[in-house]
Each structure stands twice: as C-alpha cells, then as structure tokens.
C-alpha cells in the first residue's frame, strides 16, 4: 500500500512537473517565436450574407512550435496575456495584418476591412494608441478600414479601457465587440462604449436549428444592434441551414467554416483572386 501511495504521489508530482515544464517551455518558446517571426497570421473571410462577397478578413494568430507542433491560440494567447508578451505579440500581428490588407488593396482587391483582435491587457497598456497610429502610418491603411475586436472582459477595466476606446474611435477606427452574449449580464455598457459592431458568439449560432432559445438570442442581438445603430456579424456559421436562418433574420454579415476556415496568406490571396475572376 505504501508503495502504491508513493507511486501515486510520484505520478502526481510528475504530472504537475510536466505541466509546469511545458508551461515554461512554452513561455520561452513564445518569447523566441515573437522575436524570430515564428507566429503566423491566418485570415478568415468575413462575408456579405446576401451577395456572398468577401468584405474583409479577421486576422488570427497561429503558432507552429518547432517541438510541440501546432499550438492553438486558446492555449498560447492566455499565456501571452499572463506574461504580458501579448503586447509585443499583438503589435506584430497588427502590423502583419495591416501590411497584408494594404498589399491586397494594392493588388486591386476591394476589401472594406481588416479585423484584428486586441486583448484587454493591451487596452490597459497606454502605448496601444500610439502603436496603432504608427502601424497605420507605416502600412498606409486608412483608419476606417481597421476594425479592432475586443471582448466583454474589457468591461471590468472600463475606467482604463474606455478612454483608449474613445481615442481609437476618434482616429476613425472601427470597434467590434467579440463573443457578444457570453460575458457580462449587464448591457448598460453598450450605451457608453463607442462601438460599431456586435459579433454574435458562435455558441448561439451552432444550435440555431435545434434550439428555440438560441434563435431567440440571435434574433434579439440582431434587433438590439439595429436599434443601437450598430452592425452585426455572426461567427462560427458552419451550415447552410444556419446561414439561411441568418439571412431570413436580416443579419448582414457572417464568418464561418461554411464559407471558409482561417487561411494562410497564400491561400487567402488565391481565394481573393479566384473570387475576383468570377
Ligand atoms: P475569436 O476571436 O472568437 O475567433 C474565432 C475563433 O473561431 C477562431 O479560433 C476561428 O478559427 C474559429 N472559427 C471560425 N469559424 C468557425 C466555425 O465555423 N466553427 C468553429 N467551430 N470555429 C470557427 P482560433 O483561431 O483558434 O482562435 C481562438 C481565440 O484565440 C480567438 O477567438 C481569440 O479570442 C484568440 N485569438 C486568436 N488570435 C488572436 C490574436 O491575434 N490576438 C488576440 N488577442 N487573441 C487572439
Ligand atoms: Ca475575434
Ligand atoms: Ca469571437
Ligand atoms: Ca472566442
């Protein structure tokens, strides 16, 4: 029994060690990846529900670790936030995404926007406004074509985040509230925040066909956006049935696997060229 217990104990600490070791390895790896361009930006099309045309792209970070292989943003973004590495990482992604957007425009594509995710931590960093300014200047992207996606977690720190949001808004940048409906129960911040767009979280879209309550939520968000003078985009649209429903409800834009997964810049360029030729 003693041996068993000992064994279990050892096993347990080993697991913990492995967990901590992986975390440390990832943290060091992340630092290196940021320095050495080891993080890629992928692009998911944002699509006009009626015309089926590509309106823009959302930039999504991808990390191909030399040892562990592909690591999902759900794992490394929280780590980047914890270690504040999200600040230099976010800056790189913003720069890369804006560069790519401008390249597509220079090649003759007509895209309304590039959407970039900024974490709440970045909004707490006072340099964020000058960073955005400098990226727009370097890449010659007009502010109206940049959309910044933020999540409701920003509400918690709104005394710091609100002035930043207002300054970005004043520059002419678009602000979208991501994962809408999953965060805070109070909606009062909607009237204080200078938002342009609500993004309906994919959890409500996914079960639209089987769940009357999810339909009610989606309908309500679309109506709410309309009443508040905001645009609305549905994310995580995977089936034609879901898309048909959104169309019937007057939802203007969507993203999702039914149209395309996030693509490498080469794949995204090919898709744009192909849709231009049609
Ligand atoms: P998000 O901003 O809500 O991004 C949408 C996520 O849904 C992406 O996951 C995308 O690949 C996935 N997705 C798109 N269409 C579908 C669909 O039809 N079905 C399903 N099941 N999923 C779909 P991804 O790329 O793994 O990113 C996860 C999260 O990581 C993002 O959620 C965002 O919160 C964060 N993230 C990714 N890139 C960045 C970044 O550059 N900066 C920051 N701050 N966060 C990022
Ligand atoms: Ca997003
Ligand atoms: Ca989202
Ligand atoms: Ca999310």
Q: What report would you give on this structure?
A:
- With 278 residues, the chain is α/β, with parallel strands linked by helices.
- The chain has eleven helices and nine strands.
- It has helices at 2-35, 73-82, 86-106, 120-124, 128-139, 158-170, 189-192, 202-206, 212-228, 240-248, 265-277, and strands at residues 39-48, 54-65, 69-71, 113-117, 146-151, 174-180, 197-200, 231-234, 253-254.
- The protein has an eight-stranded mixed β-barrel, surrounded by five helices.
- Helix 3 (86-106) packs parallel to helix 5 (128-139).
- The longest helix has 34 residues, at 2-35.
- Bound molecules: ligand C2E and calcium ion (3 copies).
- One calcium ion (CA) binds at residues 58, 117, 149, 178.
- It comes from Halobacillus litoralis.
- This is EAL domain-containing protein.
- Residues 23-276 form the EAL domain.
Q: Which descriptors apply to this entry?
A:
278 residues; alpha/beta; 8-stranded mixed barrel; 11 helices; 9 strands; binds ligand C2E; binds calcium ion
Could you give a short description of this structure?
This protein has 278 residues and is an alpha/beta fold.
Major beta sheet summary? 8 strands, mixed, barrel
User: Any idea what the radius of gyration is?
Assistant: 21 Å
Span between termini:
72 Å
- Strand arrangement within the widest β-sheet reads 1-2-4-5-6-7-8-9
H/E series? HEEEHHEHHEHEHEHHEHEH
* Tally of separate helices: 11
The portion of residues assigned to helices is 40-55%
| Unique ligands | ligand C2E, calcium ion
Number of strands: 9
**Poorly predicted regions:** none
In what range is the share of β-strand residues?
15-25%
Mean pLDDT: 91
Q: What is the molecular shape?
A: globular
What is the SS-derived class? alpha/beta
Organism: Halobacillus litoralis
Protein name: EAL domain-containing protein
Domain EAL: 23-276
